[in-house]
Write a structure and sequence with these properties.
Elements lengths: L17 E6 L15 E3 L5 E3 H12 L4 E5 L1 H9 L6 E5 L2 H5 L4 H12 L4 E6 L7 H9 L5 E5 L6 E8 L1 H12 L7 H11 L4 E2 L5 E2 L5 E2 L13 H18 L1
Parallel strand pairs: 1-4, 1-6, 4-5, 7-11
Antiparallel strand pairs: 2-3, 6-8, 7-8, 9-10
């Protein structure tokens, strides 16, 4: 049985001025099917589309509303399905397409162009192990203009489990659409942090020390990324274990 029920009400402690941004993004070529519509195991008998599970979490953390960045192949299915109130579907902006910008920057900038004054709590659909605690922790620790979780394995900032303010997104737009053609969100974030006095470590300039703008998650599973069928099977096993532990 597939569940598409309404999300629980927002948390009283949720940030009223922060919008959620669910990035559905790419073509899911390694997975072999669209990751957004994978069956998330709610319990032993029921599932719901992965994007809807994450969308419900974002609505609890961001009562102002949630934007869904998506590509053209996902549009019809999203429009046909049920969506909670205060959900805005954002296709790739024509200006982004004309600038030949793809990847994470396309979703971030299309949403920024749709609502230029918004601060976005960003979540990519291929992080199926995030919880409400993940999002409320990230929201509470946000320091403008951009805050990211760090991967424990390489201390690399994760731009798609993060919070981006309008100033940081303005700079990403300038870097990506201007003469530099620097479309990587991490490149822009590190440039901002360096200007604010944050030191990087490592010759590649990518490793970061925990501090005001970057920090490791309390649970490393939150950053478990699923791009291939084997990773999705592992994620489902962990999710089923969680469900069993709460019964």
């Amino acid at each position: 049985m597939i569940v598409t029920d309404h999300p629980p009400p927002p948390l009283p402690s949720a940030n009223p001025d922060m919008y959620g941004l669910l990035v559905l993004g790419g073509q899911s070529t390694r997975m072999g099917r669209d990751k957004a519509f994978l069956d998330y195991p709610v319990n032993e008998e029921t599932t719901q589309p992965l994007y809807l599970r994450l969308l419900n979490l974002l609505h609890q953390a961001c009562p102002a509303g949630v934007y869904i960045s998506h590509n053209t192949s996902q549009a019809a299915r999203l429009h046909q399905g049920w969506l909670p109130p205060r959900t805005v579907l954002v296709p790739d902006d024509p200006r982004i397409i004309a600038s030949n910008i793809g990847g994470p920057a396309a979703g971030l900038l299309s949403s920024h162009l749709a609502k230029p004054d918004a601060t976005f709590l960003v979540l990519a659909v291929d992080f199926p192990l995030v919880t409400l605690e993940t999002l409320t922790d990230l929201s509470a620790r946000y320091t403008p203009p951009v805050t990211c979780y760090l991967h424990a394995s390489d201390a690399h900032p994760e731009p798609l489990l993060s919070v981006w303010g309008p100033e940081a997104l303005d700079e990403l737009r300038e870097n990506a659409m201007g003469e530099m053609k620097k479309t990587g969100p991490c490149w822009t974030a590190r440039r901002i942090w360096k200007r604010l006095g944050v030191e990087t470590v490592g010759d590649d300039g990518k490793q970061m020390q925990e501090g005001k703008f970057v920090f490791k998650p309390r649970e490393q599973q939150w950053l478990f990324n699923t791009n291939e069928p084997e990773e999705w099977e592992k994620a489902k096993s962990i999710l089923c274990s969680r469900t069993s532990a709460t019964q």
